[in-house]
Design goal:
alpha/beta, Glutaredoxin, 5 helices, about 50% helix, about 25% strand, globular, Thioredoxin_CS, protein-disulfide reductase activity, transport, redox-active center
Length: about 130
């Protein structure tokens, strides 16, 4: 049985809103590196049952891929408290994926939100 959730434009927002920690694998069936990464991702999902592991098929869900500016696949994104805290293209080896998950777990989300707010304020100042 798969430990991952197929994310679509219909369930994406709800999944990210309802869960504190969501990993998202942007992939496609024709993509060799995506197929190589799939068992690594699935194993991580089984080893971290408290987290939500989602998959976005970029062929079936081009709107989601476009919304996040996905240029190459696979791309892994981590969303905590509805804030994207990690996004990187390329198939990660198992040890690197485990490390990224560990780092994302340790993030102080209050600090992340402050940094995001500061960046947004700076962008608004520069835009005027």
């Amino acid at each position: 049985m798969s430990s991952t959730v197929e994310l679509t434009k219909e369930n994406f927002d709800q999944t990210v809103t309802d869960n504190e920690f969501v990993l998202i694998d942007f992939w496609a069936a024709w993509c060799g590196p995506c197929r190589q990464f799939a068992p690594v991702y699935e194993k991580a999902a089984q080893e971290n049952p408290d987290l939500v592991f989602g998959k976005v098929d970029t062929e079936a869900q081009p709107e989601l891929a476009a919304a996040f500016g996905i240029q190459s696949i696979p791309t892994l994104m981590i969303v905590r408290d509805q804030v994207a805290v990690f996004a990187q293209p390329g198939a990660l080896p198992e040890a690197a994926l485990t490390d990224v998950i560990g780092q994302a777990r340790k993030l102080d989300m209050d600090e992340v939100r402050k940094a995001v707010a500061a960046q947004q304020a700076q962008a608004e100042q520069n835009g005027q």
